[in-house]
Request: fold
Amino acid sequence: MEKPLVSVLTVTRNRGYLLKRCISSVLSQTYTNIEHIVVDGASDDNTDEVVASFNDERLKFVKLDYNWPMKESIDHGVSLCKGKYLTFLDSDDEYLPTKIEKQVNLIESLPDDYGFVYCWMSHYDSSNNNKFLYVHNPQLRGYVGEANVSTPVISGTPTLMFRIDFFRQFGGWKSRDEIGIGSDWEMCARACQLCKVEFIPESLVNVYVNHGLVRASDNQKYYSDYFERSIRFSLHFLSTFKEIYERTPMKSVPHYEALVNAFFKLGRVKEGWPYYTKLLKLGFSLKNLIRPIYGYSYYLRHGRNK
Reply:
């Protein structure tokens, strides 16, 4: 019996010198029934030449006429996918050779109420001879809807493998214009409300940081108006997962901390004060007590442009 097709989606722009490693890691997978769709946001570096250097019909290159927003680029790529399963790989990262094979074997063994599976990922410092930094190794399984709404326990786009029908059903990423920040954490938090999850207790993805290009996950560098977007993002979480926070109020504490940080760093003390008082009621600590001091001192040093 033919093994199910797996779609791998990479969205990139001007990362030609990193992209070769990414593509090579996909095309060298021990699981061979794959398609690798690379959506390029009108790169003006050597991305085209890097892709053309691969002679493999499983690689499909889509060059956009301009650099579309991230969500639109992902949605377009997903619309082209023909696989039963969908997984992702950022252009600066790589899969280990058995990543897809192990995840397919796992998800094929699970009932349909498991919408996705994940694995662990290892982080390396590109600026220091790819020195190992740490492994992100969450260990949540089953229904974990309440466990992923306070901190990004299950996150990391390259670690995920979705049933593609489920991914299309719940809608995938929300746009940064809608929620402030494009976030795989937010996407996973919503997905976990609708399905069970399972994981492989093994690092099957290498993530490289400090390679000289800004990563979308490095929000404070990626967004020039980060604090404004952080406010929108935290308010989105508090609204979307309101019922969970009402049952378990302490899970909302990180979002109130983020709101206090952002409002006071913007100098918007009056707007931030209600969130500060709420934070102290929920999670009183010395750090939270003096949190506005650090925030407002930042505002005094940097002014309203941050």
